[in-house]
Amino acid sequence: METLREIRHLMERSSRFLSLSGLSGVIAGIVAIAGVVAGYLYLGINWDASNYYQFATSANGTPDPVFYTFLIADLVAVLVVSLLGATWFTVRKAKQQGNAVWDATAKRLLINLLIPLVAGAIYGLILLYRGHIELIAPATLIFYGMALLNAGKYTFNDIRYLGIFEIVTGLLATVVPEYGLLFWAFGFGVLHIVYGIAVYKKYEK
């Protein structure tokens, strides 16, 4: 039985990237919530206030450059900090397990993750350019969920469940886009934290 377990482990290592850390999900979730909090504080609105995207237009009906600058800066900051945290925890876990951080499996994982993510980023920029601010949060959730589903076959199966929940959250946010920021906080924040804790307890403790 010990030999069979070793063979199975070797097969999984050759076909799946198993160095993803649950703690990277927790960090990503915390950073996402912090980004949403920063957005609400910047806009100066209450949590139960709707139509946050009305601030994208100034009083004379023209796009507000300050709003767009803050929105882009906030999203970029969340993305950069999340990626740095994910990279650090992944490298640390790989070293602890004696696994290679960058191999053929990691490349396949990254490629399958990036295809929907890049498509979603381009689509989000198109929505921004066309002035459909209210659909950016739902769209990013849906495309991110598709990216996780696409990449799930190259790492833990648990990530596919996270992808499904992200897609469902994005679809719900499309129904009530005026609360898109709260759905975004739930999808990228709460769901990431719950997923990260579950994966950490299951595979790393």
> What is the gyration radius calculated from CA atoms?
19 Å
How many β-strand runs? 0
Which bin fits the share of residues in helices?
over 70%
How far apart lie the N and C ends? 23 Å
Given helix and strand content, the structural type is mainly alpha
The main pleated sheet reads as: none
How many separate structural domains? 1
Question: In terms of per-residue confidence, which ranges show pLDDT below 50 for 5 or more consecutive residues?
Answer: none
* Shape by Cα distribution: elongated
Count every helix, treating DSSP H or I runs of 4 or more residues as helices: 7
Describe this structure in words.
There is one protein chain. The chain has about 200 residues and is mainly alpha-helical. The chain has one domain. It contains seven helices and no strands. The two termini are about 25 Å apart.
Topology of this protein?
Layout: H1 2-15, H2 22-43, H3 65-97, H4 104-130, H5 136-151, H6 158-175, H7 180-204
Helix pairs in contact: 2-3, 2-7, 4-5, 5-6, 5-7, 6-7
Concise account of the structure shown:
The chain has 205 residues and is mainly α. Helix content is 76%, strand content 0%.
For the structure shown, list the relevant keywords.
205 residues, mainly alpha, 0% strand
